[in-house]
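FAQ: What does the model actually see?

It sees only this:
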Amino acid sequence: MQTRTLGRNGPQVSALGLGCMGMSAFYGGRESDAESIAVIHHALDAGVNFLDTADMYGPHTNEVLVGRAIAGRRDEVFLATKFGIRLDPDDPHARGVDGRPEYVAAACEASLRRLDVETIDLYYQHRVDPQVPIEDTVGAMARLVEQGKVRHLGLSEASAETLRRAHAVHPITALQSEYSLWSRDPETDGTLDACRELGIGFVPYSPLGRGFLTGAIRSPDDFEPDDYRRHSPRFQGENFARNLALVEQVRALAQDRGVAPGQLALAWVLAQGEDLVPIPGTKRIRYLDENLGALDVRLTRDELDRIDAIFPPDAAAGTRYTREQMGMVNR
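And it is asked to produce this:
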């Protein structure tokens, strides 16, 4: 397995991680726990050691699932989880954010119990709480490091300014934000530059555009009734049609290269720098193996230029989240 360093002086992890969210939440068609655990075990057997979960996936059930999967194999895993997004049990689409120090401590204790581990390798604040100074939140996270409950700290969807302020309190190992061919905001909003300036690793989530860049999604009707993507602006109406036309061009380029469209999309992300460690998610072993195949795809300068021509930073139609959810990113 190829490895990459998470941050300038951070830990070595597999060059591709595994996002576990979809095993328990948001994308419908949930597999059995046994099948999901088999995927995680297959990933570990292949050398993938970077597993990503969060307390709000399920909620809570994904951490329990990952904990069961890594039981007896803890030393093979670099385990990342997150806190900070609170769900409304009466409204599945509503979100709240909590970065209060007392909540940080309580959330960590709960995650440790669900994961059945003594230490979390990488603990992210899932979304920045605008009501709590980032210095206070990261200060509470730093105390978890001092207590041996957490090894490394991360932020998710934070702005460059917030990242700098947080890093001044305690070294931030990784920033996790959405990044793919159709979500290139980190290139233009300063966050990727800030990571490189500060020596912080960058972890792209949804590097396959929530599955769209694989070419497997042909119609909104392909989604299960409870699939989050039915409510995403990019998967609706005219936006869907315009984005599908872009994916068709990626599919054609992949066919010329003799690789799957998803492998081409992942290879593009990997080619953006050795400091990027994407975490594509999947619920099936065959797609996991396909994703891992992207590690062997080396794109030429001409191919990268052709991909950029198809998918410049502002190419995707529609915002990546609803208006309310977009208000929670880049804070």
